[in-house]
Design goal:
mainly alpha; 6 helices; cell membrane; lipid metabolism; CDP-diacylglycerol-glycerol-3-phosphate 3-phosphatidyltransferase activity; membrane
Length: 192
């Protein structure tokens, strides 16, 4: 197994630790941030999420630069991204930081596009990520990161940056999903 695939697998293995940090009420103390407090376990989970998200860029860059792109990597990389972001979004709903309907729409788009990619793969077609899809990923990561950190550093000025970014991520997620299906509808139409 090459280094990019190991990096991707490490991202998948970080997900249960991330979930544990947000699901178990660890009493490690709190940090005051404006009118709110940030539990240290949430800070650690947020930093872990940011590190795991950064590995997505690192493994892709490394795989392309050294010509180490593999079918396993093509399978694992988007899977790791979807598992990490979906877990974070679901936990944000449980924490009361994200509306469930937004999370349902975002995860539904991810499943629909994954289904389209599977149909395309069955036809021997590889569907590359679009620029809108990449922008979708980054807006989701930014929104989730800020919300996991209880809107830090914007909590000091009372600006709901995390919530605004979540709505922006939703809009771009829907747009990129529609764009993906419009551009690749021939795959569904022509599948056997």
């Amino acid at each position: 197994m090459n280094i990019p695939n190991r990096i991707t697998l490490s991202r998948i293995f970080l997900i249960p630790i991330f979930i544990l940090l947000l699901s178990v009420p660890f009493d490690w103390g709190e940090i005051p941030i404006g009118e709110r407090v940030l539990p240290i376990s949430h800070l650690v989970a947020g930093v872990l999420f940011i590190i795991a998200s950064a590995t997505d860029w690192i493994d892709g860059y490394y795989a392309r630069k050294f010509n180490l792109v593999t079918n396993l990597g093509k399978f694992l990389d988007p899977l790791a991204d979807k598992l990490l972001v979906s877990a974070a979004l679901i936990l944000l709903v449980e924490m009361g930081f994200a509306p469930a309907w937004i999370v349902i729409l975002i995860i539904s788009r991810e499943l629909a596009v994954t289904g389209l990619r599977l149909v395309a793969a069955g036809e021997g077609i590889v569907l590359a990520a679009s620029q809108a899809g990449k922008l979708k990923t980054w807006t989701q990561i930014i929104a989730v990161s800020v919300l996991l950190l209880h809107n830090f550093p914007f909590s000091y000025i009372g600006f709901p940056f995390g919530s605004i970014m979540l709505y922006i991520a939703l809009i771009i997620t829907i747009y990129s999903g529609v764009d993906y299906f419009v551009k690749n509808w021939h795959v569904m139409r022509d599948s056997k």
